[in-house]
Structure formats: C-alpha cells, structure tokens
C-alpha cells in the first residue's frame, strides 16, 4: 500500500507507510482549525509582530506538543492510551489549557493596571527599604504615560512569555480527536516493537510543527499589512490582541472544559459537512472554540485597539495644538 486512505486509515500498515501517514496526518492536523493548536499559536505569534519571531512561537509550542505526542504514542503501543482518551481527560485538558491561557493573558493585562498602594510602599520602604523612591517614581511616571497616551506607553507592554507556549504544547497534546484516535488506536499499536512505538507520535508532532511554524510566520507578519498606524501602533494592537485572546479565550476554554465534564455527550455534537478531512468533516466543539477565540475575540480586540489608536491620535493633536498656543 503506497498511500493509505487518511480519512479511514486501514489497520496493519507497513512501518514505512505508517510513519509517512503519521507525518501527513500531522500536517493536516496543523493546517485545519484545531482548538489545541490554533488559538495558542496565533495569540503568541501575533504578539511577536515579525515573521521570524512568529515562527519561533509556533516552533516553541510545537516542541512541547511533539514531546507529549511521542510519549503518548509509546503508551499507545502498550494499548494503554485508552486511559487518557475519555471525556474526563478531554474536559480536564480544556480546563488546563484555558487556565494556562488565562494566566498568560493576566500577566500581560497586569502591565496595563497598577495598584495604588504608594503610601504603603513608601512606609514599608522607609522601614525596611523594601522599595526605593526611584522605583516609586518609575511606577508613577509609567502610570502618567499610560494615562496620557496608552499607545505611546511602551513600558506598559510586557514581553510576550514565549516559553509558556512550550508548556501549552505539553498540555494541549493530551487533547484527543479524530487524529489522536487514528494515531493511538491504529498506527502506534501496529508498530513492530516497543523501541519504535514513539515514532508515529513524533512524526505526527513534526507534521503539526511544520504547519504551526507556517501559521506563526503568517500571524507574526499579519499586522504589518495595516497601513497608517506606525510601529508603535502595531505594537499596541499586537499586545492587545495577544492578551485579549489569551485572557478571554482562556476563560472560554475553562468554561468549555467544565461543560464537557458536566455534560460529556456535548462531545458528540457536530455539524456534518461531508468533507473527507478530519476537523472539517465534523464541526464540533473544537471548531467553534477556534471560531470564537481566534475569530470573535481577535476581531473585537482589533476593533477596540484601532478605536483606541484613533482616540489617542486625537488627544495627541489636541495637546500639541494647546502647547502651540502657549
């Protein structure tokens, strides 16, 4: 068999064909809308604001995914993967991925808000030198800059925590769908021995990595196509979209995970399209999570950021006009 049916993969594939099929399945998995890859890769990559850094975000996420899939593939060889392929683990994976996204978004969002406890900080500083006056001054200056013009306040924007994408990749690998079922119930158990039981998962992860890096390339350079906002404007939009998708998308994922845990039959819901491609043939909860997080939240965040840019531009013009009359 030179090229197997990848929609209904037959059993008893030869080693070489099985490895090749795993790679192609991984590529299809990476390019089709998948809730365990797209929201995370897109949110991190777009915050990098460059093709190279966006691709790096996709690579870092995929490294964690490759490692997890390789380990699960080895487990599947011993016919133990069924322990993880339950609605309980599926729901917990959504909750874990969502919580990780939420924390990353909260980290980025916290850079835009400050606790007004300066009096307490000053007293503690004078007693035990916890914080020097220079630090208080820096916080005050940053608050002032953000109040006057949040777009110009580059100090308000924390760096995107790319390393967290690796952790997300590890967690997301526990999600299962049509691709995981094929990998863990047909291809991995059919390996000739335990020494190569991990190979299908590894090749599947590499295939996914190829497409995630490509998605990272596209997402990382997406904002550069917007004209008239300037470099600082692009930084502002990218930072906002990243934190919003991670923060609010994380809440949505946690809610979806809880819904799966409470109502497991929700996993059986799907709209049949007739397309003979997994992730596109049956539009289930995963597809709508991608649509809501990357689509709805991402677009709303972009519109909100553009409006903020326009208001900031008007405020700057008024301030310059007022300064010119003095």
List keywords for this structure.
single chain; 326 residues; 1% strand
Compact summary:
The chain has 326 residues and is mainly alpha-helical. Helices cover 68% and strands 1% of the residues.
Helix tally equals 11
**pLDDT averaged residue by residue:** 77
Number of strands: 2
Number of domains: 1
Q: Which structural category do the helix and sheet elements fall into?
A: mainly alpha
Binned, the helix content reads: 55-70%
Read across the widest sheet, the strand sequence of neighbours is: 1-2
Largest sheet: 2 strands, antiparallel
Q: How are helices and strands ordered from N to C?
A: HHHHHHHHHHEEH
Uncertain runs: 112-125, 127-133, 135-148, 318-326
Overall, the morphology is: globular
Task: Describe the 3D structure.
The chain has 326 residues and is an all-alpha fold. It has one domain (15-113, 161-319). It has helices at 15-31, 38-48, 51-77, 87-109, 118-128, 133-148, 163-172, 178-187, 199-222, 230-262, 285-325; strands at 271-272, 282-283. It has a two-stranded antiparallel ribbon with strand order 1-2. Helix 2 (38-48) runs antiparallel to helix 10 (230-262), helix 3 runs antiparallel to helix 9 (199-222) and helix 10 packs antiparallel against helix 11 (285-325). The longest helix has 41 residues, at 285-325. It is globular, with a radius of gyration of 23 Å. Residues 112-125, 127-133, 135-148 and 318-326 have low confidence and may be disordered.
């Amino acid at each position: 068999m030179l090229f197997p049916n990848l929609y209904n993969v037959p059993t008893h594939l030869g080693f070489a064909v099985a490895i090749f099929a795993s790679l192609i399945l991984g590529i299809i998995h990476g390019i089709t809308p998948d809730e365990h890859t797209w929201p995370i890769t897109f949110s991190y990559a777009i915050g990098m604001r460059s093709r190279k850094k966006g691709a790096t975000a996709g690579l870092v996420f995929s490294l964690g995914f490759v490692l997890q899939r390789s380990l699960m593939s080895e487990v599947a060889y011993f016919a133990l993967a069924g322990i993880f392929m339950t609605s309980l683990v599926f729901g917990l994976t959504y909750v874990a991925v969502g919580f990780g996204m939420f924390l990353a978004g909260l980290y980025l969002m916290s850079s835009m808000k400050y606790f007004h406890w300066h009096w307490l900080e000053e007293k503690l500083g004078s007693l035990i030198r916890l914080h020097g006056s220079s630090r208080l001054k820096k916080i005050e200056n940053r608050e002032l800059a953000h109040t006057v013009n949040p777009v110009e306040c580059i100090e308000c924007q924390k760096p995107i925590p790319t390393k967290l994408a690796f952790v997300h990749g590890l967690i997301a690998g526990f999600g299962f769908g049509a691709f995981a079922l094929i990998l863990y119930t047909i291809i991995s158990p059919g390996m000739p021995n335990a020494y190569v039981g991990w190979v299908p998962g590894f090749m599947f992860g590499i295939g996914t990595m190829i497409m995630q890096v490509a998605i990272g390339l596209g997402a990382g350079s997406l904002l550069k196509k917007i004209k008239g906002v300037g470099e600082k404007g692009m930084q502002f939009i990218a930072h906002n979209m990243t934190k919003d998708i991670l923060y609010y998308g994380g809440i949505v994922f946690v809610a979806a995970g809880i819904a799966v845990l409470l109502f497991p039959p929700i996993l059986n819901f799907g709209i049949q399209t007739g397309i003979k491609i997994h992730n596109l043939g049956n539009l289930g909860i995963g597809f709508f999570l991608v649509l809501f997080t990357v689509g709805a939240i991402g677009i709303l965040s972009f519109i909100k950021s553009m409006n903020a840019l326009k208001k900031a531009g008007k405020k700057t013009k008024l301030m310059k006009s007022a300064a010119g009359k003095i």
